[in-house]
Amino acid sequence: MLIGVPKEIKNHEYRVGMTPLSVREAVRHGHKLWVQTGAGLGIGASDEDYKNAGAQIIPAADEIFAKADMIVKVKEPQAVERKMLREGQILYTYLHLAPDPEQTKDLVASGAVCIAYETVTNSRGGLPLLAPMSQVAGRMSIQSGAHCLEKAQGGSGILLGGVPGVAPAKVVILGGGVVGTNAAAMALGLGADVTVLEKSTDRMEELVARFGTQLKTLYSTQGAVEDECATADLVVGGVLIPGAAAPKLVTRKMLKDWKNGSVLVDVAIDQGGCAETSKATTHADPTYVVDGVIHYCVANMPGGVARTSTYALNNVTLPFGLAIANKGYKQALLEDHHLRAGLNVCKGKVTYKAVADDLGYEYVPAEKALAA
Ligand SMILES: NC(=O)C1=CN([C@@H]2O[C@H](COP(=O)(O)OP(=O)(O)OC[C@H]3O[C@@H](n4cnc5c(N)ncnc54)[C@H](O)[C@@H]3O)[C@@H](O)[C@H]2O)C=CC1
Ligand SMILES: CC(=O)C(=O)O
Ligand SMILES: [Mg+2]
Predict the structure, then answer these.
(1) Of the CATH numbers 1.10.10.10, 3.40.390.30, 3.40.50.720, 2.30.42.10, which one belongs to the domain with range 2-119+307-371?
(2) Which pTM was predicted?
């Protein structure tokens, strides 16, 4: 199959859908690869590197979209990219459709077969194609949050770990999944006072088994969120209901009780954010202030550390990408229910229930859409 890898065009997005090594692997399986000029520059991979891996370098994205059987990307297609998608073309990338009605409408209208990394599952109940980026974003949330707490950034001027004789900062993490666990590891490593709020008791047991008594865990109720956030210096939003819009745990009213100069890093922003006051920002202009609380809501945090992130992402996306290319999307999706869970839109039908429910589309199960 002809696989196309366009250059990412989202603000400060330096990742790329396939590394030269992934391209080499796909070529070895007999596929033809078209990579856009300069697509890998953000990870230090030149056009020459892609040529040496067996790809053909194509100057313009429209040529790639016009011919490729499958488009491999990182971020959700932007409006100009959505216009170029074709009926029956496979789109393999992050989508985050539930909070994005415009994108969903365009993907439905395109007739493309849209497989979202973030809803592919595994046998342990995890989201293997989301996990590496959640590891990155969870880790970054603490370094970004620490930066925002600096006085010159508008923060309250508190150092996460404190110093001997001065108390550390209080970090509250909403959601103890992959983002939450990685944020906790970093915050504890820096010496902060860390509390994770979770709904899943199994998850809390795993967290305590891993971090011991250094980490506090609390069952997540509205009251607990209210009380803990009001005394926090840094709040990290890492909750997720797979494929659905993020639950709004932090209301606008609550912010009035938060400390002045405290920071909210809402990692869950790609699913709409877990605070009523969260709206997506970019690496170019990452923060804004509401009621004295600095909001950091960058929807593509891992793009800021594109080298680490692209390699981590390719480690998990390549095997599924090869399965789709080798078998064709129908057979690959019908044979593997974990990959099939990634199918969000198929030839005009919404095939992911949480997206259909959140945005008011008829839900058509993936098996049914694939049989049509
Ligand atoms: N902004 C960015 O650049 C990035 C954003 N993300 C996003 O971060 C979010 C979290 O992802 P993961 O950690 O991988 O998900 P995950 O599924 O590993 O963890 C989510 C956790 O939230 C918990 N949860 C659900 N409702 C809750 C509630 N009401 N209170 C407390 N906990 C609750 C779940 O039990 C689960 O343990 C997702 O929206 C993901 O898309 C991930 C990577 C990059
Ligand atoms: C998961 C996601 O939104 C990202 O890596 O940008
Ligand atoms: Mg979006």
Answers:
(1) 3.40.50.720
(2) 0.96
